[in-house]
Specification:
Elements: H1 2-24, H2 35-52, E1 56-60, E2 67-72, E3 80-86, E4 106-108, E5 117-119, H3 127-142, E6 149-155, H4 165-171, E7 180-183, E8 195-200, E9 202-211, E10 217-218, H5 219-222, H6 229-238, H7 261-267, H8 274-281, H9 294-297, E11 303-311, E12 321-322, E13 325-334, H10 340-354, E14 360-369, E15 372-373, H11 379-392, E16 397-401, H12 406-414, E17 418-421
Parallel strand pairs: 3-6, 3-7, 7-17, 8-16
Antiparallel strand pairs: 1-2, 2-6, 4-5, 8-15, 9-13, 9-14, 10-12, 11-13
Helix pairs in contact: 1-3, 2-3, 4-12
The protein binds zinc ion (ZN).
Zinc ion binds next to loops.
């Protein structure tokens, strides 16, 4: 281990230069304008893997952005770890909120990081983390400390729903076979309170379209006589929760995983200050399902949120339109055992049933993903716990995160591997 640490110290400057080079490429997967930059980023990641000593490296083309795959097989009888990460980033808008340009990384000291932190799009989601794994491998290999086989799968479409990764995983099932999957694409509670993410919520995302009259009408002439689809849609959305803050779709909670009292107790021991949470968000009270704490509402309970709503006239000034259509994008965060497709069907059936005869309703699915949870009593978890304790000088707390990484559940289903999520801070 000392030799590995020494190698890191000797090469620290080079590592930093390489990371900054990676952060400079605008690999925005959602915007076709950046397609060649995304491809360049894949090539750079592949070159870093080769340089690190991964002997089989391939940039695999997909119908969208490429997947970088690499493997280092030391001995087939040894266990295999598959490292997953993504080199694509979210769009950097709104640009005016950036103090420095998003693709020109700078190192600045902050209150939380007096020694300096890197500011750039992707620095801590997920270029920083994937880079950390590549360099950890390099340092271990060069100091002859690699104890197992390692595979890397670094994709370029995580921020757009990993659309082509599922196909890739199915096709490459044998190549991707592993004993565990290591993912650093979540956050830790705090630098002083390290944590490992052991669960992620799933997702059902959809869009609704409510149609009233066959064309936009004048509200002065027709208002009061014809149903306004925006009014109707708002009412229908309001009916999706009951007074207890529960989701009012029949059968929605049928498959929800019941978390034991002892696990709920452990979960609520994570440091959390409700007052500063509210202050940070600028809200006077919190809102959610009755009978659960904020930590539980954002991790072990499912949710339903409208992510966007539009229709009619939204430009400057006034236009007295009675619109023909109203739309909304709605997402539901799911917990273990809830099936995204089943939830979609339940939503659709319910939404259609509460629509009055004055409108017609169309419900269209977007992407979805299963929730995932991993045990904390396994050898793999204990190894991650040990590693983080060495670094942070404190044992990490297991936490469940409210977000979704659709591919996590897929790994569990498609490879023989077990899922281990290591939420390691980097930035
Ligand atoms: Zn990410």
């Amino acid at each position: 281990m000392n030799q590995t640490q020494a190698y890191i110290q000797e090469n620290k400057e080079r590592f930093l230069d390489e990371l900054l080079e990676l952060l400079r490429i605008p690999s925005v997967s959602a915007d076709p304008k950046y397609k060649s930059s995304v491809a360049d980023t894949a090539k750079l990641v592949a070159s870093y893997l080769k340089k690190a000593g991964v002997n089989k490296v391939e940039v695999c083309e997909t119908a969208g952005h490429p997947i970088v795959y690499g493997e280092f097989i030391k001995d087939k009888s040894l266990p295999t770890v598959l490292v997953y990460g993504h080199y694509d980033v979210q769009p950097a808008d709104p640009l005016e909120l950036w103090e420095t340009p998003p693709f020109e990384p700078v190192i600045k000291p902050t209150k939380r990081h007096p020694k300096g932190a890197i500011f750039a799009r992707g620095a801590c989601d997920d270029k920083g983390q994937l880079f950390m794994h590549v360099k950890a491998f390099e340092a271990m290999l060069k100091s002859k400390n690699v104890p197992c086989n390692i595979k890397f799968m670094i994709e370029g479409e995580e921020e757009v729903g990993s659309v082509n990764l599922e196909k890739f995983c199915k096709k490459e099932k044998n190549r991707l076979a592993c004993d565990m999957v290591l993912i650093s694409d979540t956050s830790i509670l705090d630098n002083k309170v390290p944590s490992i993410t052991t669960g992620l919520r799933g997702l059902t995302y959809l869009e609704v379209e409510v149609t009233g009259p066959n064309r936009d009408l004048h509200s002065g002439v027709y208002g009061g006589a014809v149903a306004n689809p925006i009014n109707i849609l708002s009412k229908m959305i309001a009916e999706l929760h009951n007074k207890r803050g529960e989701i009012a779709i029949p059968g929605f909670y049928d498959d929800v995983d019941k978390v034991s009292k002892s696990e709920r107790k452990a979960m609520n021991q994570a440091p959390y200050n409700e007052k500063s949470y509210m202050r940070d968000l600028g809200v006077k009270v919190l809102h959610g399902e009755k009978g659960y704490t904020t930590l539980e509402r954002t991790s072990i309970r499912p949710t339903l949120d409208v992510n966007g709503i539009w229709g009619g006239y939204t430009g400057d000034g006034a236009k007295t339109v009675l619109p023909s259509k109203a739309f909304a994008k709605i997402s539901m965060r799911l917990v273990p055992h809830q099936d995204p497709e089943k939830v979609f069907k339940r939503f659709k059936k319910h939404f259609e049933s509460i629509a009055p005869d004055s409108v017609s309703v169309k419900v269209t699915p977007h992407h979805g993903g299963d929730a995932a949870v991993t045990p904390t009593d396994s050898a793999e978890y204990r190894a991650a716990e040990w590693a983080m304790t060495q670094t942070f000088e404190k044992a990490p707390i297991p936490v469940r995160s409210g977000g979704s990484i659709p591919i996590v559940a897929l790994f569990g289903n498609r490879t023989q591997g077990k899922i281990r999520l290591a939420g390691i801070w980097s930035g």
